Amino acid sequence: MEIEVISSWVVRNFYGKSNVMVKNFRNQNINQVEKQVASSAGWFLITSKDNSVDSLIETGRRMQRLFLKVKEKGIAIHPMTQILEEPSIHQSLNASIGLNDPIQFVLRTGYVRDY
Q1: Which end of the chain offers a freer environment for a tag, N or C, measured as fewer CB atoms within 10 Å?
Q2: Contact 89/83 with Cβ under 8 angstroms?
Q3: Torsion angle, CA of 2/70/72/69, rounded to 10 degrees?
Q4: Count of alpha carbons within 13 angstroms of residue 11, beta-carbon side
Q5: What's the CA gap between 17 and 74, in Å, rounded?
Q6: How many CA atoms lie within 13 A of 103 on its CB side?
Q7: Which tens digit of pLDDT belongs to each residue from 23-81?
Q8: Strand partners, 47
Q9: Structure pTM?
Q10: Complete DSSP assignment for the chain
Q11: Which of 24-35 are b and which e, b meaning 16 or more Cβ less than 10 Å from the residue's Cβ?
Q12: Whole-angstrom distance between the N-terminal and C-terminal Cα of the chain?
């Protein structure tokens, strides 16, 4: 999850289900995500033709090519695809933005000083 070394160690050794399932922890994380979303420079939505294995593999390839291209320009990409795990949102997202093809990735973007 790209957690820095010390933070990763703390999470592995001091956090469990009892910590992360409390309301305060969830609210703190929701606030952090809201700040990240508000400070984003832009968004990429990557779609596929359909949900066949071949289409999903090609979609993953397109995403990887995008990752390689934006790195050269100092642009970071942060997947925010968890929103697609909510069935009600996943079903209405395409309609709300006028896309016919299924959305497979929601990517937050912005410039970074250090990669």
Answers
A1: N
A2: yes
A3: 110
A4: 10
A5: 36
A6: 26
A7: 887 788 778 777 766 666 788 899 999 999 999 999 999 999 999 999 888 888 988 88
A8: 103
A9: 0.64
A10: ----HHHHHHHHHH--HHHHTSHHHHHHHHHHHHHHHHT-SEEEEEE-SSSSHHHHHHHHHHHHHHHHHHHHTTEEEEE-GGGGGSHHHHHHHHHHHT--SPEEEEEEEEE-S--
A11: eeeeeeeeeeee
A12: 15
- Owner of token pair 């956090």: 15
Place of tokens 């071949």: 54
- Convert the pLDDT of each residue in 6-19 to its tens digit: 877 887 888 877 87
